[in-house]
UniProtKB/TrEMBL annotation, chain A:
PANTHER family: ATP/GTP-BINDING PROTEIN-RELATED, GLIDING MOTILITY PROTEIN MGLA. Keywords: GTP-binding, Hydrolase, Nucleotide-binding. Pfam families: ATP_bind_1. This is ATP/GTP-binding protein. The keyword GTP-binding applies. CDD domains: Ras_like_GTPase (cd00882).
Automatic annotation (TrEMBL), chain B:
InterPro entries: DUF742. It comes from the Bacteria. This is DUF742 domain-containing protein. PANTHER family: DUF742 DOMAIN-CONTAINING PROTEIN. It holds the Pfam family DUF742. It comes from Plantactinospora alkalitolerans.
Amino acid sequence: MDRKSVKVVVAGGFGTGKTTLVGSVSEIPPLTTEEVLTQASVGVDDTTGVEGKTSTTVALDFGRITITSDVVLYLFGTPGQDRFWFIWDELAQGAVGAIVLVDTRRLGTSFPAIDYFERRGIPFVAAVNRFFGECLYSEEEIRTALKLDPNVPLLWCDARDRSSSKKALIELVRHAMARLPVST
Amino acid sequence: MTYDIWDGDDDGEAGRLVPLYILVNGRTTPRNTNLDLATQVIALPADTSRLEQEYREIMNRCSGWISIAEIGAYLHRPLTITKVMVDVLLEQGFLGIGAPAQRKIADRRLLETVLAGLERL
């Protein structure tokens, strides 16, 4: 059947505004789905301090945008805890790409996400969330601090603002298209 | 495997006592490995009266196209269980499936459609 799903991943460290961004452009209030992590992941995930637990629940927030009668875009926020990489793998598989939210007060929280998408060759844009107040750094300074590849778009956004989040999405799709091989 | 769906009667006064993994015959992964959390499904015309309540709840959510992630969210079921249950319903012809999310998006026309849709928002 010709019903297509398109995925976009919204990543960034804890508290960078992922769910806020999802909520600002989604046509439904963000939903939460849960993945249960069981014993099988012990040794893979860091379970220090929670040795007695046999399962952990990881919550995923997501939203949707109906593009046409056949195409729906799903926006998935990555889990708050960086260590659940197998969930990132599931989210990223087949995704158009990712928006990595950046909080300039805590640039380091965005490193794991940038590293993740870079290594896998998944298109992404870095979006500095202005929600946290005036940014004291120039684009160049942020690029340098994040060690961003010159080809990766860096933009400013306010995750609470629908049109701003929309712009970030558009930028990502354009970037993903630019990286496609020339069509035959 | 004769029964893919639990067919016993255990709805006592205390409610269901069967754990969810029994409902999926102890399966831990769907057979259809293309099932993605964003894959959309839809109910096909079928008699659902013999389905277990948990499966019927899924069917009731699928009168229009809906993703596996949404089904899990609305029914408060873990994603993996939802995926396996949807897979069972697909196998038995209760649900139809949309295009799986592609492994590598290299579909320029699809991206153009998405871009145009976003610009219209």
